[in-house]
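[Automated response] Your request has been received and processed.

Submitted sequence:
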Amino acid sequence: MTLFLIQWGAELRKMLSRKRTFIGFGAFLLLEAVLLYVFKRDGSASFFRRIISRQGEAFESYFSALTLAFLIVASAVFILGAIYITLVAGDVVAKESEDGNLRLLLARPISRLRLLVLKFLSCIVYSWILIQFIAWSALGLGVALQGWGGGLFVFAPDQGVLEFYNAADGLYRYALASVALSLSMSLAACVAFFFSCWRIKPSAATITALSYLLIDMIVKRGKFMESYKHLLMTSYMESWVHLYAERIPWALLLRNYSILAGVGLTLFVLGVLVFESRDLKS
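Generated structure:
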């Protein structure tokens, strides 16, 4: 176990030594600053003032740092987060193959399966760290702009969620949802890892994984696919929003995240089978 942890630490350090690993962190800080500016402008603020006022609540109390952080996470994480997660996970095996490092790595006393487990876990850790960074940096910027206090206003019409919480309950729901969102976005890492195991360029693995996720999302938003929504992964990945519902549907969440875990594990196994079948000597 000690040797495994040492090897995993080395894999994480290798990932962190690449500049592209940090592009997502910088891009999201910039995006969060832009979105906070947009949400604070009169036009956007008036839109939320109308919605909050129609529910009989005070706009000044609920247009808070928590509400702004939720709006940023809900509007930007799926598309932009998927880009940077697939960028890193699509690179993790394919880049080693492209650089010719795999033969050197596998010349050491380590099996192909163990090497892939180390790389797969590193991708999952990266996706978790990136999503948590996005969630808490968005809240930090919101506090810097609005100050702490006020409640949380959640408006997610696609999931049928419209709720108001005080600051303590809102922070609890926000933290809970950020963990669930990290779980959801781990599937993006699984998809990119699977394509990275094939004999293709790192950019091809990233673009293929990202294309799959975006096509899935676009098809899901088309009402004509309502009957086939259960076949689309993005419909399960959006389950984190249900944690903001007054009565959390735990059974639904357990089912959806079990499906995501099953798909992610299947992609890992298929990636291992593809990698094991490859001739790395030629």
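Summary generated for your ticket: The radius of gyration is 21 Å. The first strand starts at residue 152 and ends at 156.
If you did not submit this request, please reply to this message.
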